[in-house]
Amino acid sequence: MKIRNLIVILIAVTTIFAAANSPKKNNAPIHYFDVDTLVFIEEDEHGLGFDTAPYLPENFDPYNGEFFLDAINYIDENDDLELDFDTSGYLPIGFDPYIQ
Predict the structure, then answer these.
(1) DSSP 67-83
(2) Phi and psi at residue 23, in whole multiples of 5°?
(3) 3-state per-residue secondary structure call for 11-51
(4) CA 73 → CA 59, 70, 76, distances in Å?
(5) Is 18 exposed, middle or buried (0-12, 13-18, 19+ CB in 10 A)?
(6) What residue stretch is flagged as signal peptide (predicted)?
(7) Which of 31, 56, 89, 99 could form a disulfide with 60 if both were Cys (CB 3.0 to 4.6 A apart)?
(8) The pTM is what?
(9) In tens digits, what is the pLDDT along the chain, a chain of 100 residues?
(10) Cα–chain-centroid distance for residue 96?
């Protein structure tokens, strides 16, 4: 009985592998992709609901200007942060932020 089950399993596995590895001819027609047939969807501009001109400088252009990396203030991990008050009154008793 065990040999019969082993033979049936072996035949089934061989049939599955043979079916998976058999070359199949694809009869579907070949369609070439043409970039000129693409349809571009233009999104509508969503306004803020009010006129922003009075709140901006004259001749303001958000896309015109210079950008300097030095203007970005980075937070250094080695900088010690000192709070101006005692936080122990706001935390539970025995609170340790380093315990997971």
Answers:
(1) --GGGS-PPPTTSPP--
(2) -70, 135
(3) HHHHHHHHHHHCCCCCCCCCCCCCHHHCCCCCCCCCCCCCC
(4) 28, 8, 9
(5) exposed
(6) 1-20
(7) 56
(8) 0.24
(9) 688 888 888 888 888 877 777 666 667 677 787 878 888 888 777 777 888 888 888 888 888 877 777 777 777 777 777 778 888 888 888 888 888 7
(10) 33
Rounded to whole angstroms, the Cα distance separating 100 from 97 reads 8
Sign for the pseudo-dihedral over CA of 50, 56, 59, 61 = negative
17 phi/psi in degrees, rounded to 5: -65, -35
Q: How many residues does the chain have?
A: 100
Give, for 8, the enclosing helix (H) or strand (E): helix 2-21
What is the rounded CA–CA span in Å between residue 7 and residue 14?
10
